[in-house]
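Readers of this paper often ask what the protein records in our data store actually look like. Such a record has a labelled line for the sequence and another for the backbone structure tokens. Nothing more is needed to write down the fold, since each code stands for a local backbone conformation. The remainder of this section carries one protein's record, kept here as part of the documentation.
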Amino acid sequence: MSELRWDPIQREWVITATHRQDRTYKPPRDFCPLCPTEPGGYPTEVPEDYEIVVFQNKFPSLQPNPPEPAVEGTTLHPVDLAQGVCEVVLYSSEHDSSLTKMPVEHITNLINVWTDRYEELGAREEIEYVFIFENKGDAIGVTLQHPHGQIYAFPFIPPKVKRELDSAREHRDRTGNCLFCDVLKEELKDGRRIVAENKDFVAFIPFVARYPYEIHIYSRNHRLSLLEFANSEQESLARMLKLVISKYDQLFGFSLPYMMIMHQAPTDGKQNDHAHFHIEFYPPHRTENKLKYLAGCESGAGTFINDTLPEQSAERLRNTPPASLDELE
């Protein structure tokens, strides 16, 4: 059972998805459902070896043909069908791999897959936003350790994204400029929060970082979505992703958990030239053995408290090897 319930106070949709209580939870390595099925072995989601695979989530929050809501809505609290698509993207058939370990060519292929899914899902009439993301590590609450990401195709624009786009539209209307381009220009001028850069992308800890080692990757050129990248930009993005995640893994000497969130233009058929492609990383670790918890002030008031200075965190990451991908190749 899944449905949408409207919160009139926060003015946002909440998804209820009761069947997700039964989803697979941390199976032993030999019973990983995302590994290729071995001859005579435990049957998995993918019967043969593969490079990259996309399939519909077995425990989706949104469904192409959703059931009727479990309750009737009211004028104050409307309900709606939880219509949409939830997909799983398997990055590799190797159970113990990660984006850090994959060659740039493979990550470039993954970016092509993301682009394909963004285009195909976004073309569906009911889909207004294609949300590509990855949850990595126990600290994030991941239930399957195999390297994978997810895609949620929403029938609405998620609230955080909507606030971001509303701010960008207002800034453009007031100044004539792209808000994200102006943020990037200011970060490059200041320089203290830059972690890495190449000809097409810049990675930095934002001035208003909410997590101690939060990194944003912005495209230097004004690009609305993955669809606008040339082949050279796709490879450039792959190199930047590998570099940033490699730095994360060297920071404390272990594979750092994170949430990786991709921001791009909605697919609602409207004019969205105020959007700007970027990726945001939220690692929960604030030290090697301490986590940043979203406690009362963050969860209850919506106000983040960062225990570190972004300028100092950026300097530490900037000086964490590798300084460039040349050190990895």
User: Anything to note?
Assistant: The domain at 24-58+84-327 is CATH 3.30.428.10 (HIT family, subunit A). The chain has a mean pLDDT of 95. The two ends are 48 Å apart (CA to CA).
